[in-house]
């Protein structure tokens, strides 16, 4: 995304006149999810300055900064566990665009437990830039199959904190190995999300999404 992200964190890039992360916050608030923890690394101070404590959006934001060098996906979540507490929680990547209704996902999250399912993933059709996919979906269970057909993990999920119990705070760690271990124990559920989801990973995709949203009638998100 450079040079756009040289001076702006990706979640603050605007599409349709509104930052990506603000669109997520508004959808979460609409679903009744108002206690938010935002993990940040690159230019995180700009996110904090733009969003503050979240009161302008009807939510309460706590901030979980990563140390220099960042912690990867699972490490960043583990770093935020002290803010998240002992209950299941939702995770959304701030640099994507989606039109997910978070209320059903929050209801599923409440059913996760340390002795049962540890995660529920939203999987999408494989985008052009990731045709091989990530995981298989079999009757509501997510499998770490190596052979197609596979779907792509959207980055949107519900987790129980027990999934991250093996990690130390401040440890860099990837999420996929933790998920594959849980999948091998049949402890990851999932669903095929067929709504709009876009990985805004290039200036071209950002520009196209911005143009598409500006063409839509102005209605509440």
Instruction: Work out the count of structural domains.
Output: 1
End-to-end CA span: 25 Å
Question: Could you give the count of β-strands?
Answer: 12
Q: Radius of gyration over alpha carbons?
A: 17 Å
Describe this structure in words.
With 221 residues, the chain is an alpha+beta fold. It has one domain: Spore Coat Polysaccharide Biosynthesis Protein SpsA, Chain A (Alpha-Beta Complex), CATH 3.90.550.10. Helices cover 29% and strands 23% of the residues. It has helices at 20-30, 44-51, 72-84, 102-109, 175-184, 203-215; strands at 14-15, 18-19, 35-40, 60-65, 89-91, 96-98, 119-124, 136-138, 141-143, 152-159, 188-192, 197-199. A four-stranded mixed beta sheet has the order 5-10-7-11. It is globular. The chain starts with 13 loop residues before the first strand and ends in a 6-residue tail after the last helix.
Please give the structural blueprint:
Layout: E1 14-15, E2 18-19, H1 20-30, E3 35-40, H2 44-51, E4 60-65, H3 72-84, E5 89-91, E6 96-98, H4 102-109, E7 119-124, E8 136-138, E9 141-143, E10 152-159, H5 175-184, E11 188-192, E12 197-199, H6 203-215
Parallel strand pairs: 3-4, 7-11
Antiparallel strand pairs: 1-2, 5-10, 6-12, 7-10, 8-9
